[in-house]
Amino acid sequence: MSRLGAAGPGAGASPGAGAPLTRRAGEGYLIPGGLVDVHCHIGLGPGGAVDRPTALAQARTAAGAGIGLIRDCGAPTDTHWLEDPAQVRAAWAEGAAGMAAQGARGAVEPDGRCDRAGEGDRKPGAGGTPPLPRLIRAGRHLARPKRYLRGFAEELDSPGDLVEAVARQARVGDGWVKIVADWIDRSQGADADIAPLWPAPVLAEAVAAAHEAGARVTAHTFSRAALGPLIEAGVDCLEHATGAGPEEIAEIAARGIAVTPTFLQVDYFPSFAEQAGGKYPRYAATVTALHAAHDEQVAAMHAAGVRLLPGSDAGGTLPHDALPAELLAWRRAGLADAQILHLATLSAREFLGVPADPRQAGPVTYPRDPAEDLTALLEAGPAA
């Protein structure tokens, strides 16, 4: 059994220090309750909303990667049906019928679950299929027209509509709301760069509306310009936060705002710059600089005491079994394997308010203790 005797910097108020990160399970090891992915999109694909069989395949792929808890960080479809076994069985049957009609290979489990091809490459072994992760939903992304990925968000015609939209998403989500705080503004032509979507007063009123409704707010942000208003508005969490410099990092730490660094997503920035080419040179220069500084920036956040949250950003470009690779990338910020695993389990669960029972099983088992060698996360097998 591996424990983290002291949470160390970057873990917030040392949640769960001394609690077991892993325990023996037969010939291998398990993580009680599994890994946590706080930035994942179930029900979202590269083109927007996906059908139920595909959403279910996404959830199963995440489970096969050892994930037991997901904060769904914005999706265009309501996935509460995943909590209903009858609707889950119906989705599997629909997926199996679709594959049979196409001559695709797949397997239907005795309980009605189907191994749907095409989402990740993890398949159930002799031990059966792991249970679906628990989902905490943030409703739909909230953005402006042409200021986010097409088909992903509820696009608000006027910035002033944000307050009402936040209140609405707070009612349909599970205690979280997702705001897109910045994106490239292509209307500026060659001067286009990442720019805020919302006036600061509107943003502050929207965050207050979410809090009044009992929901917390997380915000997508790449730029430095968006961070000041977000911090002042009192957001609870920042996704990516690549624009944070020393002053912003100090303020984020002082206010207890959590950050999901999304290394794998930020690693796409050079390709964004290449795609922008000569059409948007300012934007290309910005994302190139943000990527170059990211490893050291995350290290500075950790040293400052910012709570780092594990998030794969699966659902757009990245597959739903990407979290282990994401966590291995955290080594680039100088974090030890046990620290990373603590942040991806006990600390993240404490932040979300969903503690794990140390006696709880995990969705998968590992051949080695991941707290001692994080590469074991890439070798998940059926639960014992």
Automatic annotation (TrEMBL):
The keyword Hydrolase applies. Keywords: Hydrolase. Residues 34-355 form the Amidohydrolase-related domain. Residues 108-124 have a biased composition (Basic and acidic residues). Residues 103-134 are annotated as: Disordered. One of its GO terms (molecular function) is hydrolase activity. The keyword Hydrolase applies. PANTHER family: ALPHA-D-RIBOSE 1-METHYLPHOSPHONATE 5-TRIPHOSPHATE DIPHOSPHATASE, AMIDOHYDROLASE-RELATED DOMAIN-CONTAINING PROTEIN. This is Amidohydrolase family protein. It comes from Actinomyces bowdenii. The lineage of its organism: Bacteria, Bacillati, Actinomycetota, Actinomycetes, Actinomycetales.
